[in-house]
């Protein structure tokens, strides 16, 4: 590739078959520049439009996504290897986010603060052009988490999808236009991270970067944003605990465990990949969880019965393999052989708590199980990582549920459940899992600047 990325195409492979799905031109730095200029002009008109009109157009965009839900889902199955059920949920999540954000346009209000000698009000002003840089693991939802509230708050959005998964993002941009969103307000710029992504980060006309991806790249982007005092949200990696206490409904905890780290083939920043089990029920838990793991259906993602598909790429497969030597003690499921990037469900049963598999984000269908002695030990182990994104705890003791929820340093916890993400509740990480929050009731505010205005009544 030349340094500007010109004449470069990205080949999109079906990870289940290794067949070519499409080739997509890579956006150059000069093309990013032109896109920023067009987006800035579109943003000025958009922010001046009546709130009800902006809300209506976003609702129409949501309807267009809904009408093409099956097409988007099938496209995600082909480009990302997601199971059909997951892909349908993901397209539905985009629709719901657009609807939710549309409801916020007319509710995005400032405050009136009591002051002597006048009136004090705050104005929430759009930032301008927002750069959203998305990863490949949930291409549609993560693109929409930034895009929907940013548009609703009066901004323009330039979305840089991951190299391996640009197709659903490109289709969403077409649907936005068909729904009547102004031209250039939402543009998708496929291309290389260090070319198109970097051009967004460095561009003075981009007011904020919303980055979801690896902690390594997130740190580089943060340093560049610091130089420019550019606004920034980081949603990074995770190594989340699933804490199972002896007083829990052990059958329920074991039954829920496989998909808590196997969903999306473990390529989920919230995957519960450190299973911490109270020592007194450790053996019983393993006996319950083993058949649940080996019976997970792994195969053709377009088959409705499939629970787990392939990994995204050959390099991801090699990365996952490197954590699981052939002689590792593990409970192993099955996976197809032949073409495609397949790895079986794997629960490592004899890892040291400080081993790479127990501390590093693998981003594949691999978890470790570790025993703990008491509540304090469970909290210590849960926090023994540089990450802090998600976590679950299983107990019937309400006091313990609250104590442990307060003690675990992570942004998204669930008790007797593994759910992490709802578009109407806040989401984000502690420590090296990220910076800032997305989704939830304050999502639009994160795309505004607060201006304070004092009006004297004494003049
Ligand atoms: P990645 O960091 O390699 O890439 C993410 C995006 O950044 C891609 O679009 C890529 O092209 C772009 N990029 C790469 N280098 C860049 C640069 N120098 N400048 C600007 N952009 C650049 O991550 P990935 O491998 O695509 O995604 C997997 C990672 O994402 C995992 O670590 C996972 O935990 C994390 N993730 C986090 C969340 C969350 O919400 N916390 C959600 C999903 C994924």
Keywords:
binds nicotinamide-adenine-dinucleotide; Aldehyde Dehydrogenase, Chain A, domain 2; 14 helices; 6-stranded mixed β-sheet; Aldehyde Dehydrogenase, Chain A, domain 1; 459 residues; alpha/beta; disordered N terminus
Kindly describe this structure.
This protein has 459 residues and is of the alpha/beta class. It has two domains: 9-236 and 432-455, Aldehyde Dehydrogenase, Chain A, domain 1; 241-422, Aldehyde Dehydrogenase, Chain A, domain 2, CATH 3.40.309. The chain contains 14 helices and 18 strands. A seven-stranded mixed beta sheet has the order 12-13-14-11-10-15-16, with helices on both faces. A hairpin with a 4-residue loop joins β3 (112-113) and β4 (118-126).
Q: What is the secondary structure topology, with strand pairs?
A:
Elements: E1 9-13, E2 20-25, H1 29-48, H2 51-67, H3 69-80, H4 84-105, E3 112-113, E4 118-126, E5 129-133, H5 139-152, E6 156-160, H6 167-178, E7 186-188, H7 193-202, E8 208-212, H8 215-228, E9 231-235, E10 241-244, H9 250-262, E11 274-278, H10 282-294, H11 314-322, E12 330-332, E13 346-348, H12 356-359, E14 366-372, H13 375-382, E15 390-394, H14 398-407, E16 412-415, E17 434-435, E18 448-456
Parallel strand pairs: 5-6, 5-8, 6-7, 8-9, 10-11, 10-15, 11-14, 13-14, 15-16
Antiparallel strand pairs: 1-2, 3-4, 4-18, 9-17, 12-13
The structure holds nicotinamide-adenine-dinucleotide.
Nicotinamide-adenine-dinucleotide binds at residues 133-138, 142, 160, 162-163, 193-194, 197-198, 201, 212-214, 217, 220-221, 235-238, 269, 361, 363, 389, 429, 433-434.
């Amino acid at each position: 590739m030349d340094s500007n990325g010109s004449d470069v195409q990205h080949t999109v492979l079906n990870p289940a078959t290794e067949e070519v799905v499409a080739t997509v031109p890579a956006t150059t730095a000069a093309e990013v520049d032109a896109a920023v200029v067009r987006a800035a002009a579109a943003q000025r008109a958009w922010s001046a439009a009546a709130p009800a009109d902006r809300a209506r157009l976003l609702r129409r965009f949501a309807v267009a996504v809904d009408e093409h839900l099956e097409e988007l889902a099938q496209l995600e199955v082909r480009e990302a290897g997601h199971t059909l059920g997951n892909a349908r949920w993901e397209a539905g999540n985009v629709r719901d986010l657009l609807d939710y954000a549309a409801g916020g346009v007319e509710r995005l209000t400032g405050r009136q603060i009591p002051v002597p000698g006048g009136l004090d009000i705050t104005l929430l002003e759009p930032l301008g052009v927002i750069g959203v840089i998305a990863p490949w693991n949930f291409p549609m939802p993560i693109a929409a988490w930034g895009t929907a509230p940013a548009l609703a708050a009066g901004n323009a959005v330039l979305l840089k999808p991951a190299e391996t998964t640009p197709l659903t993002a490109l289709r969403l941009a077409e649907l936005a236009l068909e729904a009547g969103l102004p031209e250039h307000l939402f543009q998708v710029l496929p291309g290389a991270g260090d070319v198109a992504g970097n051009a967004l980060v460095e561009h003075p006309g981009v007011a904020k970067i919303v980055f979801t991806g690896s902690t390594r790249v997130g740190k580089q982007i943060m340093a560049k944003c610091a130089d420019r005092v550019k606004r920034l949200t980081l949603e990074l990696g995770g190594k989340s605990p699933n804490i199972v206490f002896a007083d829990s409904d052990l059958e329920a905890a074991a039954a829920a465990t496989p998909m808590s780290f196997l969903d999306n083939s473990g390529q989920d920043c919230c995957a519960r990949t450190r299973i911490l089990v109270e020592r007194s029920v450790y053996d019983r838990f393993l006996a319950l969880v083993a058949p649940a793991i080996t019976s997970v259906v792994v195969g053709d993602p377009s088959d409705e019965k499939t629970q787990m598909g392939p990994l995204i790429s050959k390099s991801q497969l090699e990365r996952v393999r490197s954590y699981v030597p052939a002689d590792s003690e593990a409970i192993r499921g099955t996976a197809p052989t032949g073409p495609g990037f397949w790895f079986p469900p794997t629960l490592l049963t004899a890892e040291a708590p400080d081993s790479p598999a127990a501390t590093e984000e693998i981003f594949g269908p691999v978890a470790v199980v570790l025993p703990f002695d008491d509540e304090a030990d469970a909290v210590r182990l849960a926090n023994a990582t540089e990450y802090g994104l998600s976590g679950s705890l299983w107990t019937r003791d309400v006091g313990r549920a609250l104590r442990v929820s307060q003690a675990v340093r992570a942004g998204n916890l669930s008790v007797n459940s593994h759910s992490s993400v709802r578009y109407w509740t806040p989401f984000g990480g502690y420590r090296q899992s990220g910076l800032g929050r997305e989704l939830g009731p304050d999502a639009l505010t994160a795309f505004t600047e607060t201006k304070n205005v004092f009006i004297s009544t004494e003049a």
